[in-house]
Amino acid sequence: MTTDHALEPTTRKDGSPTLPARGYSWKPFEPVHGAYSGAEIDKRALQVRHQLFDLAPWLADEPVYVIPVARFVRVEARSQLLAEAIASKTDAQGILSVGSRMLEAATACDRLAAKLGDDLGLSPLGKAKLKAMTAAGEIGAEGLAELLERGRKARIAAGQLDAEEVEPP
After folding, report:
1. Using CB atoms within 10 A as the burial measure, which of 52, 118, 152, 164 is most buried?
2. Where are the domains of the chain?
């Protein structure tokens, strides 16, 4: 290893010896993709949320979807940021210059976003499951009301309840 200048010993404030810097150089700073930054994820999540409510307005109407939607938009935002970072590090021949950790994180985010989106009814199968579960819940509520009424009538017939005292639910 050759040096461009002579190394001259110097001393620190405490009197201990040291040598001057040896002319190291580093690569220029590259912009960071933001997939690990909470602030960048939050900015992108706002965009994803607006797009989501345009595509799936039923998610904006029900309070029960608040937490699942918040999870989905954050994961989808991170997934998009990682995908953009990978795309920016692909050259004209399609050769990637990213580490395996970024590829693993992108794959995991894509899988989780697909799962959460499916749970929210954002895929054809997920929407069918959501409709089936909603219909089953409505049928279950109607069946329960009917069962309560039948029980009330049976107790009145058995003399356990007075018909004027108890109103149907």
Report:
1. 52
2. 33-90+97-123, 132-169
- Whether 49 contacts 100, CB under 8 Å: no
Please give the radius of gyration of the chain, using alpha carbons only, rounded to the nearest integer: 32
Return the H-helix or E-strand segment holding 11: strand 10-11
Question: Element (H or E) spanning 149, and its range?
Answer: helix 124-157
d(C-alpha 157, C-alpha 151), whole Å: 10
Dist CA 134 CA 36 (whole Å): 36
Burial class (CB in 10 A: 0-12, 13-18, 19+), 126: middle
H, E, C per residue of 20-63: CCCCCCCCCCCCCCCCCCHHHHHHHHHHHHHHHHHHCCHHHHCH
Per-residue pLDDT of the chain (169 residues; tens, 9 = 90+): 555 656 566 677 787 777 766 777 778 777 678 888 899 999 999 999 999 999 888 888 888 889 999 999 999 999 999 999 998 888 777 777 888 899 999 999 999 999 999 988 888 887 777 777 766 555 555 666 676 777 777 777 777 666 565 555 5
- Half-sphere exposure at residue 68, Cβ-oriented, CA atoms within 13 angstroms: 17
User: According to the model, what pLDDT value does residue 23 have?
Assistant: 73
Which residues is 15 bridged to in the sheet? none
